[in-house]
């Protein structure tokens, strides 16, 4: 542990991003208190497909930040083995795979396997494509388990955690936030770090600087299936699916609206049919859960990370994909908050672009 600066930091939000921030800050000697309105990992983290995916098809202002994400997860995994990351690689093909991305991607871990190799990677595929994109370095994790591991790591460094504790407001002195008013009382703070996902807009609105983070719905589905059905992470036009060691099959689907035919259970039935048509041995799929998760996405689609303009002592941290960027953002933001080191990787993400 680094020298304790005595800096009092209140982290609002105990999803995977808030947990990573708490862990990195506590490891640097900060006096950290995590405040969560519900329970640990009860928000969008609980409904995350949790793909550690650095690919992006469109022009990407945070490409450099994405490139560092996987390296940081390997570092974090060495420190916290309970993260239990599955480095299976990701197999992508079909019309949804951006051809420009395929042509531009020349990383050493990226290969373009032909059908015979694809069949070796995923033996259960009934009709493997002629060609695909395989990102060997990518993986996935249990986002809830990983969040608990990060929180436990922060607590081992002296952090405290208050669950079932709502933020009611902020105490300010001459434009500087000096405390957080909660349902359990007021917490003194030198820095308040807002990592509360879709609640960011409301919380920053209390300070007169509402950051435009809006909830973006997606459908998250779990099935029980025979273990070993899916070996990598498969993403194509028919399905986006991965599997845990215990056989649980995880699926991400687009949210299509509130109509009855688009209810999560109906989407889960259609997804199961698609999986059965694609994979041999998937006939015994049994639905466990199907629900809508609300991802925090800004109006320009980029993360929002940095000090809130004109309000002293407040640092905002909200993003999609939160799981993929949690490790790298946790380290970089903690360095900015604790040491004043300005990260060039975070420059496109600053909140002041909205004001």
Please give a structural write-up.
There is one protein chain. This protein is an alpha/beta fold and 355 residues long. The chain folds into two domains: 8-69 and 143-212 and 299-354, FAD/NAD(P)-binding domain; 90-136 and 215-297, D-Amino Acid Oxidase, subunit A, domain 2 (D-Amino Acid Oxidase, Chain A, domain 2), CATH 3.30.9.10. The chain has eight helices and 19 strands. It has helices at 16-27, 63-79, 99-104, 115-121, 143-156, 200-205, 264-278, 322-339; strands at 8-12, 31-35, 51-52, 90-92, 110-111, 133-135, 139-140, 160-162, 167-173, 176-182, 185-188, 191-194, 213-224, 233-235, 240-243, 249-254, 286-298, 304-307, 314-318. The strands form four sheets. Strands 5-6-4-14-15-16-13-17 form an eight-stranded mixed sheet. Strands 8-2-1-12-19-18 form a six-stranded mixed sheet. Strands 9-10-11 form a three-stranded antiparallel sheet, with no helix packed on it. Strand 18 and strand 19 (314-318) form a beta hairpin. Helix 1 packs parallel to helix 5 (143-156), helix 1 (16-27) packs parallel to helix 8 (322-339) and helix 2 (63-79) crosses helix 8. The longest helix has 18 residues, at 322-339. The two termini are 37 Å apart.
């Amino acid at each position: 542990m680094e020298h304790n600066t005595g800096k009092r930091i209140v982290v609002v939000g105990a999803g995977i991003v808030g947990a990573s921030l708490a862990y990195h800050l506590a490891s640097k000697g900060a006096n950290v208190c995590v405040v969560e309105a519900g329970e640990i990992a009860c928000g969008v983290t609980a409904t995350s497909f949790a793909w550690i995916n650095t690919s992006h098809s469109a022009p990407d202002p945070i490409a450099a930040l994405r490139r560092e994400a996987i390296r940081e997860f390997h570092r974090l995994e060495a420190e916290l083995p309970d993260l239990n990351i599955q480095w299976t690689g990701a197999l992508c093909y079909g019309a949804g795979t951006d051809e420009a991305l395929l042509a531009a991607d020349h990383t050493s871990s990226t290969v373009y396997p032909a059908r015979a190799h694809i069949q070796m990677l995923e033996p259960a595929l009934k009709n493997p494509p002629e060609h695909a994109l395989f990102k060997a370095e990518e993986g996935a994790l249990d986002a809830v388990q990983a969040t608990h591991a990060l929180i436990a790591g922060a607590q081992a460094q002296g952090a405290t955690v208050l669950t079932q504790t709502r933020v009611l407001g902020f105490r300010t002195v001459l434009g500087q936030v000096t405390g957080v008013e909660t349902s359990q009382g007021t917490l003194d703070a030198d820095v308040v770090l807002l990592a509360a996902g879709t609640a960011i807009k409301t919380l920053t609105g209390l300070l007169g600087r509402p950051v435009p983070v809006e909830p973006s719905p997606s459908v998250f589905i779990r099935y029980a299936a025979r273990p070993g059905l899916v070996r990598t992470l498969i993403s194509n036009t028919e399905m986006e699916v991965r599997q845990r060691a215990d056989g649980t099959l995880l699926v991400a689907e687009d949210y299509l609206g509130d109509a009855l035919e688009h209810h999560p259970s109906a989407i889960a039935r259609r997804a199961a049919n698609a999986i059965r048509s694609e994979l041999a041995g998937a006939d015994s799929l049994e639905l466990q859960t199907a629900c809508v998760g609300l991802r925090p996405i800004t109006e320009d689609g980029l993360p929002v990370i940095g000090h809130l303009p004109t309000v002293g002592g407040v640092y905002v941290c909200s993003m999609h994909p939160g799981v993929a960027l949690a490790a790298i953002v946790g380290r970089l933001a903690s360095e900015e908050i604790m040491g004043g080191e300005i990260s060039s990787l975070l420059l496109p993400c600053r909140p002041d672009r909205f004001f």
